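BACKBONE GEOMETRY TOKENS
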Amino acid sequence: MSLPMRPTCIIPLICVILMSAPGCTARYAANWTSLDARPLPKWFDEAKIGIFVHWGVFSVPGFGQFSEWFWYWWHSQRRAEEVKFMQKNYPPGFKYADFASEFRAEFFEPDNWADIFKASGARYVVFTSKHHEGFTNWPSAGSWNWNSVDVGPHRDLVGELATAIRKKSLHFGLYHSLYEWYHPLYLLDQASGFKTQNFVAQKTLPELVDLVMSYKPDLIWSDGDWDAPDTYWNSTEFLAWLYNDSPIKDVVVTNDRWGKGCYCKHGGYYNCADRYTPGKLPDHKWEKCQSIDSRSWGYRRDMMLSEIMDLPSIIKDMVYVVALGGNYLLNIGPMSDGMIAPVFEERLRGLGAWLGINGEAIYASKPWRVQTENSTVTVWYTAKNKIVYAIILGWPSKQPLQLTAPKTSGVTQVTLLDYPNVPLKWAPVTPTAGLTIVMPTMPASPGDAWCLKLEGVV
């Protein structure tokens, strides 16, 4: 399959791949003005919490900062740590491809993963279908002998996890890298200054279409786009087909990584940079991806406990994101054998326990007119159904707690979500704004955060 140097439209090509009827519909045109006008499916904003999973051949060496980039650091000799690691632990002539047979996933039980993700309080999961190394976690026809069915686990990891996740009534999304570091066709296109598109035509687009048709993901988390413009990737043409004619056209959510210069400008919602943390309320739906391991997205055998986010840090970060209208995508890197490190499971279950009490302030919430204030503790606000939630990070050292932003009324009522049926005593600060609240005696919270439910305030 080949493409002209710059086709005017690749939609007919996708229609041929799909064996669909001649002529695709065109509710959305293949340009950013039209595509960016598509309303974001409601489920995504309501979900708020997702789990990101980085898993692949890179999980076998499992070494160094950003371990998912191990091949790149070692092959290019860009970092001495990876070079020394290989010299010390593997024989001369050992190739990165040799790690694939060691990626066995012998303890991978997708139902167990799904149980943990459900217990975390997450409403969606984003799983690595293919990272920049090119190894696919499903039987991609374009990755012969470099996929999880032909070598390694000999299992369709994407398909098995998709089934398990959906049994838990969670949304299932797929991460997919547009590019591959060392694929010959990509290197040829790169050498041409991206004037040819052989890799896109023969690898990227067929893979994306295969993922959509085979697994019907609710979300496509695109990455690896930054070397080339969206015109090289034919991103707008693919997205127009995805939104107009794919079997997931009404539910699918996409991010903003579709070509050099696209992020934070185009796409369904914005990831912007990894760990994106805006300083004020953005005017577009966004998501922060954050790894529990502060040094890597993939699993590291050399990780230290001091490098792992503790539960209060995770909850503080999540509350910040949700109060500013974002979604929180919390990442883990499973081991190559399919086990999730106990410390990761403990963090996820701890998050779920906190959300089990305070989730009504998070799920389907909206940013309030005031997002935060500092009293004796930091307070973040969310709102839903005319109710305002004040999430306090750390127990106030002084009584009573004073909030200056809410405007009270004759029907104002304050409760703590830990004790929902016990109204708290409060008094106005001024006739028009603010209130002081007498906080009850409370045991320590695992997440070091509590939520006040404020009814009858504006």
